[in-house]
Amino acid sequence: MAEAADDIRRAKREGRAALVLHAQGGDWIGHKLHRVEALQRLGLRMMLLAYNATNLLCDGLLDRTDDGLTRFGKLVVSECNRVGIVLEYTHTSKRSTLDIIVSP
Length: 104
Prior knowledge:
Layout: H1 5-13, E1 21-24, H2 34-41, E2 44-48, H3 71-83, E3 86-88, H4 94-102
Parallel strand pairs: 1-2, 2-3
């Protein structure tokens, strides 16, 4: 299981596979910000905030709205940055993607 980039590099050198835990969608967070750190401690290293549909965190790619991150979504992005979870944005709306990129 890869917890850092060096784990991936080592697996490649050894001709082995490296597993990176990824969450597809942030619905599991609910309104409980502490879950982000809890899942990071269990090995989560990447996540997607929304998979196509709008949720409590941000707008999805397939929705007609493009409002970006919610207030709580901004807190989640900050928490992910703090604990070292990489955010991907392949299925978030354009505005959500831009908000994730510029969030502190």
